[in-house]
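Quick one: structure for this chain?
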Amino acid sequence: MSDEEIRAAWAWDKDMTWPTDEELAEFDLVIPAKSRRKPPKEAAE
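Got it. Here's what it folds into:
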């Protein structure tokens, strides 16, 4: 979904708010451990 599609889907719910740039700046990027693992050798070939 694009940002515009997400905003349109949220538009009906007045309790939902889109985070501001200041709020987004406070977020930490978390990469799940599973994504950080190296692929098995047979998958890498």
